[in-house]
Design a protein that fits this description.
With 163 residues, the chain is α+β, with helices and mostly antiparallel strands. Helix content is 33%, strand content 21%. The strands form 2 sheets. The chain has a 4-stranded antiparallel beta sheet with strand order 2-3-1-4. A hairpin with a 2-residue loop joins strand 5 and strand 6. The termini are far apart. It comes from Chengkuizengella marina.
Length: 163
């Protein structure tokens, strides 16, 4: 990938609604050149999807996000890929990462309740033959997501009292 396409990606990542004309102006390029670069990256599956970052706590609080650390035994000749694919096909699974360190996969899932997330772990995930162990964490509050601060910092309006 050339430097120009990389700069276009960075600008789109900051704001996916930026029009090609604006990107062209920011990069000192022609609009057609930007449009062509974006189309090529979409075709090559570099740009997979355009999606907003939503602060769901402002809309509703009726979903639970779980982060699950999973230790697995890789399959001979296939490694972690087949198991990861089996896991990411579940509709409640939002993200799957192959990790270095104490565990192999990190999975982010969403459910309506803690019980629903626990059901996924106990009845779907832990029953996969290659899964050795799981450790589940629940997200209590998101402060920043994808480089975007979700909560405005509120200034302390209390009066200062000194002894």
């Amino acid at each position: 990938m050339n430097d120009f396409k990389f700069k276009v990606l960075e600008l789109l990542q900051e704001d996916a609604r930026r029009e090609a004309a604006v990107i062209a102006t920011l990069l000192g390029a022609e609009e057609d050149e930007v449009t062509k670069a974006i189309e090529e990256m979409e075709k090559d599956n570099v740009i997979v999807k355009y999606a907003p970052v939503i602060n769901w706590s402002k809309v509703h609080d009726d979903k639970v996000t779980g982060i699950i650390e999973v230790q697995i035994t890789p399959e001979r000749g296939r490694g972690f890929d087949t198991i990861a694919e089996r896991i990411y096909r579940y509709p409640e699974v939002k993200t799957v990462y192959l990790m270095s360190g104490a565990y192999d996969l990190q999975i982010e899932i969403e459910g309506k309740t803690l019980k629903e997330v626990a059901f996924f772990v106990s009845n779907k995930l832990s029953t996969i033959d290659s899964v050795l162990s799981t450790k589940t964490h629940f997200i209590l509050k998101k402060y920043k997501q994808d480089g975007i601060i979700l909560e405005d910092h509120e200034d302390d309006h209390r009066m200062l009292i000194s002894p």
